[in-house]
Specification:
With 666 residues, this protein is α+β, with helices and mostly antiparallel strands. The chain is 16% helix and 34% strand.
């Protein structure tokens, strides 16, 4: 396939991102993998730097400097890479670390961090290695001394009594060098006569097994290969018959809140045995933290359950055709054979101008002269490649099926709220310099990203690309139904509206001033301009907007307000301005519009205060603003493909430019 290299407009933020990457690791500036063997490097990914910069900008709403951003990036990158300890760690941990291929689980904390903070959340995960097993003197209490792959410290755990049978001096499973996952731990902090912190007993422990290890393979064959899901009987279980089952983790369902008071929690895990039979493994209440040990990258891993509790599917509303389901009982023990996370080697074509980033080799014109390098990215058992650590910016033209952890930087050209669904799902068309793609945004309850409209520049991470067949209107004609899906509660998912970022106007390192005469119909990214107000065209009205999304509402019969953006009735409405005004500088003039906080900043009065003014004062008020000077962020909101009846187009009232932020100049 032939494609033209995307040539972005003069975007200062993109330039600063490249500069920051070079400043953090100048030795890696020329090639992500100088050895050409597809190995990972210590260079920060493009996604990581963008997310960190935007989070810092959100924290410093009054503005940031290049020094602040570089200092924050340097400190954060240093902390992120502290998993390369300089001090000596236990020998058994160091040996296992050489063969360690898994990525950290989402909630994993390190033992070193427990010592530093003297704190441990019940939802935190420890991916530990047993360094020693001993009995407290004068007692029958077993203790495990634990280390991990990212720490030099060790910490002791009081072992829960349900796992005592796994300890044997000669052939026990819980022995030196065994890897375990645990969560739901209470920390007995240091102090009060105790010199070191210790972990109190937890039953939420998973033992890791290795099918390539002879002893583990014999254990699995002897204990877990005789029972199948079809052999599980509720009647037999009631007569004290216990089962040892072995199955693949296919799916982990969302957290459900049940009961009249909404206090009972439940999670269901779909398991599939070797003959394809499915059963639900149901976790209740505080047991749901166990899914922290079984979530990505464990999907597709094999789970061995010894003595699971057998329940009737009808009794626990498991939502399955099977008569029984599995539960985590008082005698249940879990063993996990993690899926081996393969690496996918990608060919990366480096452009002659390093500042222009890189492209996947499959999207480069073969006739172009390019320097090719390789980079390896994690690949799961379903063939999906994780791009969260991809070293460069991803473009729309790079996207393919089965790509996860993708980030995009582009302009919103269309927004549609999906109807006929109880979920809050919005479809956004995002365009960059290489093309456009539809993204589906899934929200837990309702839109939660603040005001977003046409022409706004956004950064979105945590996207998953898939081939999708859509009914009704075709959103992806030009991309063969390739769709990018984003979920609000997915790990690594973030969304930033750069056009409305409060710190943008005060952060000179992230923007470049332009002139009004430079604006054209081809302008895509957000522009920053010094302007003065003129009253040649000035139209001001007060209206009502939806407090959740910031868009205008319309009055329906019976006094009901309907949001034009969310397409639903809304109770939370606030008074707002709708302003059209002439902006001028030495090079020219344009007519622009704004609403919400931006209009309030320009008018220097709140909508409620303005509404209370006498009619004569409201009429005279605009004259006081003549020649007032502002620094503004302005976007091109005139987008092709949006129909004349589109609610977002109607908000513009025929005006091509929207002011998204404004700052009064003294």
């Amino acid at each position: 396939m032939n494609s033209v290299d995307p040539q972005p407009q003069d975007d200062s933020l993109l330039k600063f991102i490249d500069y920051a990457r070079s400043a953090l690791s100048p030795e890696a500036d020329e090639d992500p993998d100088p050895n050409g063997n597809g190995s990972e490097t210590s260079r920060p990914s493009w996604n990581w730097i963008v997310s960190r910069i935007l989070k810092t900008c959100s924290a410093y709403s009054s503005g940031v400097t290049a020094a602040i951003l570089l200092s924050d990036l340097s400190q954060a990158w240093h902390e992120k890479n502290r998993d390369r300890p300089m001090k000596k760690m236990p020998e058994c941990v160091r040996e296992l670390r050489k063969k360690h291929k898994r990525r950290k689980l989402p909630n994993t904390v390190t033992i070193d961090s427990i010592y530093e903070k003297n704190f441990l959340s019940l939802k935190s995960v420890l991916e530990a290695v047993i360094v020693d097993v001993y009995v407290l003197p004068g007692t029958k209490i077993y203790m495990l001394s634990l280390g991990d792959f990212w720490s030099t410290n060790t910490i002791d755990l009081y072992l829960h009594q349900k796992y005592y049978d796994l300890i044997n001096p000669t052939n026990g499973i819980l022995n030196k060098g065994r890897q375990i996952f645990l969560t739901g731990c209470y920390l007995r902090a240091s102090g009060g006569g105790s010199r070191c912190p210790r972990l109190l007993p937890t039953e939420y422990l998973v033992v890791l097994l290795d099918e390539d290890d002879d002893a583990d393979a014999m254990l699995l064959a002897a204990q877990f290969c005789s029972d199948t899901f079809s052999s599980v009987s509720l009647d037999a279980f009631s007569k004290n018959v216990y089962y040892s089952l072995y199955a693949r983790i296919e799916h982990i369902g969302p957290l459900e809140v049940l009961g009249e008071s909404g206090t009972l929690q439940r999670k269901q895990i779909t398991l599939v045995d070797d003959v394809g039979t499915k059963l639900q493994f149901v976790l209740w209440g505080e047991q749901v933290v166990l899914t922290n040990l079984l979530s990505f990258p464990s999907l597709g891993s094999m789970l061995a359950l010894d003595k699971p509790y057998i329940a009737s599917s009808a009794d626990n509303a498991a939502g399955t055709s099977a008569e029984v389901s599995l539960e985590f009982g008082s005698a249940t023990q879990l063993f996990l054979v993690p899926v081996v996370q393969h690496k996918e080697q990608l060919c990366i074509a480096l452009r002659p101008n390093r500042r222009q980033g890189s492209r996947l080799l499959s999207t480069i014109d073969p006739s172009q002269s390019t320097q090719v390098s390789q980079f390896s990215l994690p690949c799961d058992s379903h063939g999906s490649i994780d791009f969260s650590s991809y070293p460069f910016q991803s473009y729309v033209s790079d996207l393919r099926d089965k790509m996860t952890g993708v980030s995009l930087y582009g302009v919103v050209t269309s927004i549609i709220k999906e109807r006929c669904t109880t979920e809050a799902i919005f479809s956004l068309k995002i365009e960059d310099t290489s093309g456009a793609i539809w993204t589906r945004l899934h929200f837990v309850k309702y839109w939660s990203l603040g005001r977003l409209s046409l022409g706004h520049t956004v950064y979105i991470s945590g996207l998953t690309c898939s081939m999708t067949k859509r009914k009704g209107f075709q959103l992806n004609r030009c991309h063969n139904s390739l769709e990018a899906i984003w979920s609000e509660n997915t790990g690594g998912a973030s969304f930033f509206n750069l056009s409305c970022l409060p710190a943008l106007l005060n952060s000179s390192c992230l923007h470049k001033l332009t002139k009004l005469s430079d604006l054209s119909s081809q302008t895509t990214c957000t522009q920053i301009v010094h302007i003065r107000l003129e009253m040649a065209q000035f139209h001001l009205s007060t209206r009502f907007s939806h407090a959740v999304c910031g868009h205008l509402v319309t009055e329906q019969p019976m006094g009901v307000s309907e949001c034009s953006f969310c397409n639903e009735n809304c109770d939370e409405v606030v008074r707002t301005f709708h302003l059209k005004v002439t902006l001028a500088d030495k090079s020219g003039k344009v007519l622009a519009w704004c609403t919400g906080h931006t209009a309030t900043e320009i008018l220097q009065i709140s909508p409620d205060e303005f509404f209370k003014l006498p009619e004569e004062e409201q009429f005279m008020y605009p004259s006081s603003l003549h020649n007032e000077r502002f620094k503004v962020a302005i976007v091109n909101c005139n987008r092709e493909g949006s129909g004349s009846g589109d609610a977002l187009v109607l908000e513009t009232e025929g005006t091509s430019w929207e002011i998204t932020r404004a700052l009064k100049c003294d």
